[in-house]
Structure formats: structure tokens, C-alpha cells
Design a protein that fits this description.
Distance between the termini: 22 Å
CATH superfamily: Ribokinase
Order of helices and strands: EEHEHEHEHEEEHEHEHEHHEEEHHH
Helix content: 40-55%
Strand order of the largest sheet: 6-5-1-9-10-11-12-13-14
Shape: globular
Radius of gyration: 18 Å
CATH architecture: 3-Layer(aba) Sandwich
Number of domains: 1
Number of strands: 14
Structural class: alpha/beta
CATH class: Alpha Beta
């Protein structure tokens, strides 16, 4: 792999999360799709916020979580995402730069406020996200810093960001710049409902621009419109060099060229909150990838990071991931 000063630059929705415990009845009564990311407008955001219980605020956003995890593991990370020049925007910028991530995207001075996601966590640790994208929708190709992309070994694209048209242009610009300068391009599918909205565009992106694909089992089956996991695995092998498929308690499957590795899930005493599990899996995986580890260890490193994040509330690491990984993998 080409030596560069940044290991991974992540591009995604810059969001501040608000976590609250909720019951299944609360989800039903308020029309919230359990376990999914539900896009909402400003009016519904205010309504749900008024109804939800006591909350905890912390910076989130899928790719932001991945960037923070990569930095915690000791790799160099960059981030591209749009915030407003408001209180939550300043909170997001402080939180991600404080852990060592390079974040230089200019904030918007007017328009929608910084995005926020109201996350209802039920007793089974499932998280149901209700996301007001706010300033995120203003991110476009002009925000993709070609120097930062050129300096990065891997560019990581967040599927959630794919909704606004300008974001699609940003993805293509980043992918082309990465490949022109010897970098790799990775994509996370983010959510089955996200795949349903953008299946054809995702398939084209994977086929023509993506080297490393991240997905969970349901997202992958949705992408290829099949109920058979093995069939989906065979199809993804035809489309990209590397794929990492998470399966919850079943662990993960890592495909790399002709190799297939089935990785057991890391043990967790108590699953508290599954928010960010996929984000941190990608962080561990990409850290190990950039460090030149073997493909099976890419998946194991992802599992270690994911296990830490589901042991507490929030999608940013509380423990030192570098030390955890060293203890598990040596």
C-alpha cells in the first residue's frame, strides 16, 4: 500500500446524537421503525424531543464515529462533514478534533442548523434513530479537499450521506481523486432502508468505484435482492476486491480476493446499546488493513472495536481501543 500521512479519511453526516431509553410501546405510539434510521424534518424532531425521556448528548454520525475509532486505535484519521456555525456544530468540531481527527470542512453560516439524531434505545439494546439532517444536506463536491483525499490511504464513504444529490457528486469526486492518487475507496451501506432508496446507484458505485465494502447481512441481501446470504456473498465477490459483512452475534465474514474468513464475534458481558457497532467494526478493520495485518485480523480487529462500543451507551469509544486490540491480537 502506498505510504501516505493519513490512513483513512471518512466522509459522512456530521451529527450530534441525543440518546434516551424507550419502550417498544413508545416506538409504536410514535410511528418509529425499530432498529432503523428514520429521516425526519425539523418539526418532527422538535415533537419527538419533547416526548422522549431524559437524554444524553454526544457527537455521533456514522463516519464520524468511524474516524474517532480509527484515531483511538492509533491510526491517522481525517473527516469531511458539514456543520452549522452554531452550538452543536462547535460541540461536534471540538469532540472529533479532540481525539486527533483532522477536520477542516468549513461550517455553514446560515441555513439549517447542525444535524441531530434522536436515538431511542430499548431494553433489548436495539437503537432506533430519528435523524434530522440539517446542515448535512449542504455538503457538496466543493467540500471534498483534494489534498486531504490525496494524502489518505483509504477514503471511507458513509451510505447515509447518499440521500442529497450534491453528496453523490462529492462521493464520486472523492473516489476518483483517491484512485488517481493511489488510494483505496471503501463504502458502508449503512442501513437496509438506505439500500432500498439507492440500490441502483449503490450497485453502480460498488461496481465502478469501491474497493472495500462494509455491510451487515440484511444490507447485503437487500443490495442484491436475495434472501439467501450465500448467494449475496457470491455476488459481492464479483463486484469488489474486499468485503466485510457483519452478522451480529454470529460475528463476521471477510472476503478478500479468493480468500474467505469467518470470524467469531468478540465476547461481551452485557450488550447495552448497539449504536455504532458497524461504525466501530469498520474502524477496527480499516486500522488493521492500513497497518498491513492479514485479512482474518482485519475482521478480528473490527470485532474488538465493535465489542467495546456495544458495552456502553454512545457510539464513541470509552476504553483505549489501541490497548484492547493489543491485548486481543498481540
Amino acid at each position: 500500500m502506498v505510504a501516505k500521512p493519513i490512513d483513512v479519511t471518512c466522509i459522512g453526516n456530521a451529527i450530534v446524537d441525543v440518546f434516551s431509553q424507550a419502550t417498544d410501546d413508545f416506538l409504536t405510539e410514535n410511528g418509529i421503525e425499530k432498529g432503523a434510521m428514520n429521516l425526519i424534518d425539523a418539526e418532527r424532531a422538535e415533537l419527538l424531543y419533547s416526548k422522549m425521556g431524559p437524554g444524553m448528548e454526544m457527537s455521533g454520525g456514522s463516519a464520524g464515529n468511524t474516524a474517532a475509532g480509527i484515531a483511538s486505535l492509533g491510526s491517522k484519521a481525517g473527516y469531511i462533514g458539514k456543520v452549522q456555525d452554531d452550538v452543536l456544530g462547535k460541540v461536534f468540531r471540538h469532540d472529533i478534533t479532540a481525539v486527533g481527527v483532522r477536520f477542516e470542512t468549513a461550517p455553514t453560516m446560515d441555513g439549517p442548523p447542525t444535524a441531530r439524531s434522536l436515538i431511542m434505545v430499548t431494553a433489548d439494546a436495539q437503537r432506533s434513530m430519528n435523524t434530522f439532517l440539517g446542515a448535512c444536506v449542504q455538503l457538496g463536491p466543493e467540500d471534498v479537499d483534494p489534498d486531504l483525499i490525496s494524502d489518505s490511504r483509504v477514503v471511507y464513504l458513509e451510505g447515509y450521506l447518499f440521500d442529497p444529490p450534491e453528496a453523490k457528486k462529492a462521493f464520486i469526486k472523492a473516489a476518483r481523486t483517491a484512485h488517481e492518487t493511489g488510494g483505496k475507496v471503501s463504502l458502508t451501506l449503512s442501513d437496509p432502508f438506505c439500500v432500498d432508496r439507492h440500490r441502483d446507484a449503490f450497485l453502480e458505485l460498488v461496481d465502478h468505484h469501491v474497493d472495500i465494502l462494509f455491510a451487515n447481512e440484511e444490507e447485503l441481501k437487500s443490495l442484491y435482492q436475495t434472501t439467501d446470504f450465500d448467494e449475496a456473498l457470491q455476488k459481492v465477490r464479483e463486484n469488489c476486491e474486499t468485503a466485510a459483512i457483519t452478522r451480529g452475534a454470529k460475528g463476521s465474514v471477510v472476503l478478500h480476493k479468493s480468500e474467505v474468513h469467518v470470524i467469531d464475534a468478540e465476547p461481551v458481558d452485557t450488550v447495552v446499546d448497539t449504536t455504532g457497532a458497524g461504525d466501530l467494526f469498520a474502524a477496527g478493520f480499516l486500522h488493521a488493513y492500513c497497518q498491513g495485518m492479514e485479512p482474518a485480523d482485519w475482521g478480528r480487529a473490527g470485532g474488538v472495536a465493535a465489542a467495546e462500543i456495544i458495552s456502553h451507551y454512545g457510539a464513541r469509544p470509552e476504553a483505549n481501543l489501541k490497548d484492547l486490540l493489543a491485548a486481543r491480537l498481540g
